[in-house]
Amino acid sequence: MNKFGKVAVLMGGKSKEREVSIKSGNAVLASLIRQGVDAYAFDPANQPLHDIESYDLAMISLHGRFGEDGSIQGALELLGIPYTGSGVMASAIGMDKLRTKMIWKAAGIPTPAFQTLSARTNFTDVALELGLPLFVKPSNEGSSIGISKVNDIGALQGAYELAKKSDPLVIAEAFIGGGEYTVGILGDESLPIVRIVPSTEFYDYEAKYLRDDTKYHCPCGLDKDLEMSIRQDALCAFRAIGGTGWGRVDFLMDENRKHYFLEVNTSPGMTDHSLVPMAAKAAGITFDQLVMKILNLANRSDEKYGEVFYVG
Question: Could you give all domains of the chain from N- to C-terminal order, each with its CATH number?
Fold first, then answer.
């Protein structure tokens, strides 16, 4: 394990997902220490960033703004510290749901219909265009923070105001009602699909982190050929934004078994409720093995600009 040198596990940070990040980071840190890696916790919210120059490699367990949006990746690039996960560009795009969807739409990758919202928006026109129910969400936020499911036109204004508290860029997205799924990405491979069945109206923050009645199915119940096709499409969706290393791509199914990709997570959770460890386990990969695979995927900056991807 000496090949990694001194490893900083970045956790905490300044985003609204700080507490989740601390849980992820502590789980990762404990795994690294168990496996003989010289690893230490590093919280950018409480420690001067230049202190990270004393480390040889950074394992990023930050979620949300300032940790998953290209900010910390850019700082590590400038300092010459190798790090896990995607590079600056892919991290920034992946954090921005609107730009991700625009890239996917241009590349022919299926994603639910959407519109941007502002104070001047005619919300009745949006409801007529996208249909009801629909979702309203901040473009740059994670863990379903600021997201509302809107069932009637009268609630659209309030949903917009709520989302705007998290990000000035707000989108409305068409509802797809055939089930919610996710695909973990590990290097050049996709992991088994996980189907998510929340007891709440949708897979919100509470369902993700606080409740014990959210159900996860892996195997996901899809036909084997269909699952493998979607897993390949998920790799294309990940590479389309320049994603490298590891990540997660969420998607919805409609009643006709057609899939629509929602967003990319370039620094997924590693808690006891998290989806990538769950999918890895279904693939025969233990948590410790998963952590080491992610660490081994850490690359220097000149290797973090993705590869050519093909759709269809």
Answer: 2-84 (3.40.50.20), 113-174 (3.30.1490.20), 180-303 (3.30.470.20)
